[in-house]
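From the pipeline queue, job 12 of 40. The input is one protein chain; the requested action is below.

Action: predict structure.
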Amino acid sequence: MRKSLSALAIRRHIATLMLTVTVVVLGLFFTAQLPVDLLPSITYPRIGVRADAPGVSPKVAVDEVTRPLEQALAATEGVEQIVSKTREGRISVDLYFAPGGNIDQALNDATTTLNRARNTLPDSIEQPRLFKFDPSQLPVYEMALTSETLQGMELRVFADEELARELNTVPGVASVDVSGGVQEEIQVNLDPARIQTTGLGITDILDVLEERNQDTSGGRIQGPNREPLTRVAGKFQDADEIRNLIFETDGQQVYLRDFANVVDGTEEQRIFVTLNGQPAVKVSVQKQPTANTIVVVDKIKQRLEQLETAGVMPEDLMLNVTL
């Protein structure tokens, strides 16, 4: 006579109860381990390349940067389509691949190809950046900073050097991006008429500025118990050091201030961020791909509360959460 499952469960009620409790406990445990994210994990068959070219017009950038990048990246294995966009100061090149391919291998191939072609790009172009298109790279937390006492450069410096540095230490945070405001910049405005009287050339001045503004390694100091590393600090610390830079010409010494005007100011603002018509600085936080979105956001809020309690935040600073 066949025994039914229900009859067996009734007779073995203790074993049935223990099995049920085990299944419930395991279910609760694994449910708590499930990742929570804004979007599902999707791999797009697309790689992006971004290059910054400050001060370069789009027409010049197309011939000197965009086309060489397209020609070089066309050798990437598996690429089906290349789409580029060039605007003032920024070049964007997107590579499209067939769905289902190994995008990680494609990224490695594109990186190798780009490194080989780096010498064909102008020296003024910053190192291009390559990345995969991944929804997990979207910001999980954004806020706009406004203040009556901190304006422009001061607000940007606080966001860069204080807030972003603290948020980068939060577990699960991959990067913190700051935009808006203005950044400090020292401008060296040369006077062509006065340069001619010194006998110096523009390239000579640029070479000296680059050579003097460097930190170099000093090697090791041998001691009985240890060998400390040394470093020669040569980078400019303020605008006065640049003004007092000495040039040798025809057996004479001239200062940079004799033929140039050194201005300790701010760079030209190209990105404007406003909140309700008021100038602001935007802070965007990206999480690590495997991190739990809810947990990361909660830890970010806790860190912000800790900074406010510790008095790091200016009294009138407003943190306006936009995402």
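Job complete. The chain has nine helices and 16 strands.
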